[in-house]
Amino acid sequence: MKTILITGAGTGFGHEVALRLAAKGFNVIAGVEIAAQVHAVSEDAKKRGVSLRVEKLDVTCEGDRQKAADWDVDILLNNAGISEGGSVADIPAENLRRQYEVNIIGPVMLTQLILRKMVAKKKGRVVFMSSVAGLTTDPFAGAYSSSKHALEAIASALSQEVKEFGIEVATVNPGPFLTGFNDRMFETWKSWQDDPARRLFDYSKIAFPHEQYDPEPVFETTIGVLTGAIDTYRNVEPKEIIPQQREQLDAIWSQKVTDGLGKRPELVQKAYDIKPATPV
């Protein structure tokens, strides 16, 4: 069976996908950010009755990335990521840099190393866990969304660049799923090292402005993309929001800078009105 490396496998999508792929008999390397997660994921695997290899792999750590360069990986899932919430007008520089280091720089540097062995074998698959936030943008998610927009560009460029070496590239684009990830994004302000009095917004009063779905479709689609059962380049879940995404993208072409000027946009108001972790 092929060897699949999954980053960010300590929690969320990566965690569940790693365990399910191990159950299917794949050789799974579950990369986790911190050493404590090595034990936690290993214990979860035992409870499921599956076997996988768990390695500390902080994508922002050069030493961890160099260690991974020695592994014989057939399929790479760049899943590790964080979400920094807050207005573009307020987010501190340190938080913005951390957003980009984890979601862009680290994964790209790791991919460069893993690609070398794939190129030598003339085959391989690189999958980026992107987001619908890489296609469209919500208020208070500009930092996170911009990191995913960057990842979309990187994935698209890489796809064109490595075709001649027999390497496939794909993206998975989850929408709003109820894993805790989105709600935590709207709590990062609690650790900001700034002057709260200078903020434009009171973040204690706002929340993630979408109802959220059960994450099951993301698990199955990601597994399909990784194993080759799904061969489409872009894979949005849930599929029911694809028309909405296309509509939002098209609307930009006719949007005027004066549209709605002086009024609070609907989605900003919803951030004030909705409760955290609201299901669909």
Automatic annotation (TrEMBL):
Tagged with keyword Transferase: no
PROSITE patterns: ADH_SHORT (PS00061)
Key word Oxidoreductase present: yes
UniProt xrefs under Pfam families: adh_short
InterPro entries: NAD(P)-bd_dom_sf, Sc_DH/Rdtase_CS, SDR_fam
Keyword terms: Oxidoreductase
Single Gene Ontology MF annotation: oxidoreductase activity
Similarity annotation: Belongs to the short-chain dehydrogenases/reductases (SDR) family.
Matches recorded under PANTHER family: ALCOHOL DEHYDROGENASE
NCBIfam families for this protein: PRK09291.1 (NF006776)
Record's protein name: Short-chain dehydrogenase/reductase
Higher taxonomy: Bacteria, Pseudomonadati, Pseudomonadota, Alphaproteobacteria, Acetobacterales
